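User: Predict the complex with adenosine-5'-diphosphate.
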Amino acid sequence: MELQINKGVISLIQGDISKQDTEAIVNAANKTLRGGGGVDGAIHRAGGKAILEECIEIGGCETGDAVITTGGNLPSPYVIHTVGPVYRDGTKGEPELLASAYSSSLKLASANNIKSISFPSISTGAYRFPLAQAAEIALQTAIDYLRKHDDIERICFVLFGQDAFDAFEKKLKQMIP
Ligand code: ADP
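Assistant: Here is the predicted structure with adenosine-5'-diphosphate placed in the model:
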């Protein structure tokens, strides 16, 4: 499914983010940047040790921020590592921090002249953010960014399971005017 916003396109696909050939893929990392499970594990496994070495050099990343490394052996030249919030009860700033993880990643992409970027569904795995709300925040942040910026041509959401794909598809359909 695709939606054109201003100069850019938002697309939803089901698949493995480590196989995407957009200029950047986004890693749902943790604050230590030392690797982990889920998307993080898949990206480091497929990308090789160069990515981890760069992450160690950077040192860490706060929740809601993003950092960039090369893509190692991945098809994408860059990996943007962002840290989404751990979901507690929704009153600890989780929605704002999740939006910030997406917008920080997009700003870093723009700053590096990156025109196409793939996101996983940040925070909805081990960090337990409710999927429907997370999908709405992810899509709204991407739409707002494309409305205000002309440089990014494609934002892909690469959803790993049917549940995640269905949640994003349902929200995107509701958001189309
Ligand atoms: P977080 O710690 O931010 O919750 P996880 O990696 O645990 O991150 O999960 C985030 C989402 O990414 C989940 O919906 C999970 O199913 C999905 N996911 C796991 N592996 C991959 C992959 N290889 N490509 C894309 N999405 C993935």
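Residues 94-111 form the longest helix (18 residues).
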